[in-house]
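Notebook B, p. 112. Complex prediction, attempt 2.
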Amino acid sequence: MRKCIGIILLIIIAWGILTSLQTMPFGVSRAKVANHYINNGKDETGAANIVTSVVINYRAFDTLGEVTVLFLSAIGLGAVLATIKTREKRDTEKASLILSTGCRFLFPPIILFGAYIFIHGHLTPGGGFQGGAIIASAFLLMYLGCHGEKRLNDRCSTFSESLGGLAFVIIGLIGLAVGTHYFLNNFMPLGKFNTLLSAGVIPIIYIAIGFKVGAELSKIIDLLMEES
Amino acid sequence: MNEMSILDPVLLIAIPLGLAFLIPLLGLVSKKIVRWIPVVGFLFNGIVALLILPHVLKQPIIVKIGGFVPPFGINLYAGSVGMLLASLIAITGFLVSIYAVKYITKGAEQKYHILFLLLLTGATGVVLTGDIFNLFVFFEILCISSYALVAYLGTRSGLEASIKYLIQGSIGSSFLLIGIGLLYGQFGTLNMADLARQIVDYTEPSVFVSMVFMITGLGIEAAIFPLNAWLPDAHSSAPSSVSAVLSGIAIEVGLYAVIRVLFTIFAVSNFFIFFMVLGVLTVLIGEMSAFAQKNIKRMLAYSSIGQIGLIVFAFSISTQLGVAGGLFQMVSHTLGKALLFLCAGYMIFRTGSMEISSLEGIGKKMPITALCFTIGTFSIVGLPPFTGFASKFMIIRAALANGELLLQILIGLVLVGTIIEGAYFFKIIQTIYFKGAHKTDNREEAPVTALIPMLILVSFIIVIGMFPNIIDKVLQPAASELLDQVKYIGSVLG
Amino acid sequence: MNILYDYIYYAGAFGLIFIGIFTMMVKRNYIKVIIGLSILETGVNLFLISVGYISNGTAPIFSNPGIEAKNMVDPVPQALVLTAIVIGLAVLSLALSMAIRLYKHFGTLDLQQIKEQRW
């Protein structure tokens, strides 16, 4: 019964989408807004990576919301899992020496790579979210490889997620106070194009986001690991 | 201009976000400060919103985020509707967060306050934004914090409700995103005013499909009739302070988004009969289901569905008076339902049960709370001199204004719904005051932090109900803003 | 053949979306519903990204001076997808945390057997 209803509903949706897609063929040229970003983005934001300039400058408010959503999910996860009292112990076997040494050996390079990704977000593909995800993967490796030996420092992750978020908001408010008086405007000098110290506030915001995302994703992993 | 640059509407979103990020840090210092942070945030928001409100009645403020001219950057559109709802959100949030200071004692308190603060910040973002994808992002902030808050108490029913809500809500947001993607693919812009300028005919199949996707997605959050299966569970199993904002703010904001998309982006003109019938169906189904309930919070939740139907009906009359009536009904529902949930919260806390029958004799036990509850029910049902009467009266006047037979029949059905509403609310009042007189009447009033918000809400309900002209000054510009698409486009794109 | 070439990415994206919605509507096991949600989100993201593609396009990055702006793909959907992925991840992690709670409370993940709330 449910399957029938489901299939009928899907057929209706598919028919609607087919009619809609006929007016937007695949792979045609870009629209006005996108052209503006590609032609003027370089000069207006100073970032070589146009996606970054859209994410952190033109649509920075979305990104602020996005950071908030991630923050929310970490907090919500904590709130949902908070009231579990009984925690049965599971038998875990200690990982072999090779595995745990390998994980410990790989941990610093992965962190370093994550940091590289988010610092160079305005020049190369990548950015705060991607770098943060890589950092979190380093923590995931530690949890999997060296089970229960090392844990995420709670206070440290709280500090980096709060300070990362605060830095984003405060940079926005500074933009409101100085320069052209717009929230989140790029008030710093744009610097020489395609170098590390360029694009004004973009690298700073991406570093803040990198710390925040890394801390939050690691915290989510930590919470889920602890409870499951 | 100088004064306005200090009172930028973006502060209404930025400051609460900053405070929310600050809470974990403050939590390391002291656990007690944390519960006052939402109070501070919403006090600030309320003051700023009320200071900005007079400025926007004639001319909306367009906030360009990052200084990029629309449609190239995201802009906020602080018009009369946006600021009216933002003030309402801030005031309700302020009162409910005072209530929550003593009410929330179980679970991860600090996380509760963060989620609560962000829930209403998301709502503020939705009502202020002028960019369709930005609306989606703030909508998600609103939704995700409500999913987590519904499951906050960790009870079995709360968990089940939250899962239902999460599944349906995430399908809804995916639909919204598909709609946004289709629109972007066709018009190459995300700015609402720019979209509105480019969409000449919404009945064109490709545009119509994206509209249906967006309305379905937003309609799930707004709890319009066939999409409201999650609401009674979610609103009845959340902590009462959360139910108050979910019922009072969250669904209203969803409805605002539906209205904004319909009126401003697509400029829908001949589709309103459908929404009218949908609204009346929502009223009747909501009120009849509420009548059958034995659990007080479920009854209030179903009554919210009925009220939402009434608001949908009022908006779909789509005249100046009708839209103003719909907005007024939003305001009175927010005040009334928030008050009812706050009162019900402590009544349930004291009796230890959500069954209506267990409320016998509570009128003697908690006289002030019971009185506030009674006033709230009177306002929701629509008795003079409370706000509910003024708003319902406005809707009836709007429906009868052009003398169409269909409208007269439909408003008749709405009034039937109101009578059912009256019947079940009087049943509760009867239980509260006139049953169980034999019980010992040791008084156990709610604490002061709960009584103050209730009494303030009562005073709002009475004052606005007696002098509807106060709010009418805002409602009329707000209604014309929603109906005047050309002016909206002009003020954003110049 | 031409039609297939024009619409193959959309077809793939909407295929995933339909599979996701169907899974979410039909399956009773909560974990399977979450998997459906994940497929749905992937489909939506794929759809958004293919909206911005242009034929023979390059990434919108001016990594060396000789690069021309002419062939770059639309950067906006990429930014949107970045946001959408993060939001999807947030919903997914919350859903998973509820799955943990669900199992602790009810001892089952079958949504049909959980009937605490009545209508």
